[in-house]
Design brief:
This protein is α/β, with parallel strands linked by helices. Helix content is 36%, strand content 13%. This is DUF72 domain-containing protein.
Length: 285
């Protein structure tokens, strides 16, 4: 069996990447392809704001290999506005829209609001049981009770394990260790959740979201514990996906590859990442 670690970022296009990681002024239909030369996974955050058209999703599939992983977030209308209740029509529309991804839809990501607490787990259980079995599901919770109360932790884990769903930790512990030092960090300081660290995998395909700092060395220092966890998961036969965030995300593609390189230094049998295409420098003529 091939040992494979997937790594990626919170998005596949960012102005700060142009001319560094990807070519300048790429058309929309080429941006994901260029990003996929750096990373083999990406968070599908845009679908949180609206269900895309099938035609748009088909272009994502066309730009990536079948082994590329998109963790696609369910729209906020389903998770935040309706809180998983009376959403059958919205879910059908979303599932139809993302169908062109095929195996690239690594997991459907159910990010729940901070107000969705332990008492709401039966709603989540019912929702997951009604979802089609051909997809994998991964749930991100932000209510503190799920992390600080052992009974609530166990209750959520049981609900997820009953439907083979994963629990996505969003590790912000390194970010919140010291006060912000940039505008991007100050903005993230007020918006990102402060959740206790969780490093438990429920399925064979765990997913981690990690938030570092705008200083690369601080980001690398903060993920050292994850190198141990991810290496252990791979040795157990799991196939993890790790998303590296920083407040400005300016260096995120390189950092994601750096994480992969650090794991591969421990596990040389790990399949390498693709080689990025060289980026031509911007010229004046």
């Amino acid at each position: 069996m091939t040992m494979r670690l997937h790594v990626g970022c919170a998005m596949w296009t960012l102005k700060a990447w142009q001319g560094r990681f990807v070519a300048n002024a790429l058309p929309a239909g080429e941006r994901l392809r260029a990003y996929a030369g750096w990373c083999n996974a990406v968070e599908g955050n845009t679908t949180f704001y609206a269900t895309p058209t099938r035609e748009t999703v088909a272009t994502w599939a066309q730009q990536t290999d079948p082994g590329f992983r998109l963790v696609v977030k369910l729209p906020k209308r389903i998770t935040h506005e309706r809180r998983l209740t009376d959403v059958a029509a919205d879910v059908r529309a979303f599932l139809d829209a993302v169908e062109p991804l095929g195996t690239r839809a690594h997991a459907l990501w159910i990010q729940l609001p901070g107000s969705f607490g332990p008492d709401d787990v039966p709603v989540l259980s019912g929702f997951l049981r009604r979802m089609p079995a051909e997809h994998r599901y991964a749930v991100e919770v932000r209510h503190p009770g799920f992390f600080t109360d052992a009974r609530s932790t166990a209750g959520l884990e049981a609900a997820l394990e009953n439907t083979a769903a994963e629990w996505i930790p969003f590790d912000t512990t390194a970010f919140f260790r010291s006060p912000p030092t940039s505008d991007a960090e100050r903005d993230a300081w007020s918006k990102k959740p402060r959740m206790p660290l969780r490093t438990v995998a429920l399925t064979e395909r765990p997913i981690v979201r990690y938030l570092g700092r705008d200083d690369d060395d601080s980001t690398v220092e903060g993920w050292q514990g994850w190198l141990d966890v991810v290496t252990a998961w791979l040795r157990e036969g799991r196939s993890p996906t790790v998303f590296v965030h920083t407040p400005d995300n300016a260096d995120a593609p390189a950092l994601a590859r750096r994480f992969h390189d650090a794991v591969r230094a421990r596990l040389p049998q790990l399949e390498p990442l693709p080689d990025p295409e060289p980026v031509e420098p911007l010229t004046l003529f």
